Amino acid sequence: MDDKLTVENVGQPGKTYRVDAAKYQAMRSAMLKVLPQQAPGMAVAEVIAAVRPHMPDALFPGGDTAGWWVKCVQLDLEAKRVIARTPSPVRLYCLQSGH
Question: Torsions phi, psi of 28, nearest 5?
Answer without folding.
Answer: -60, -45
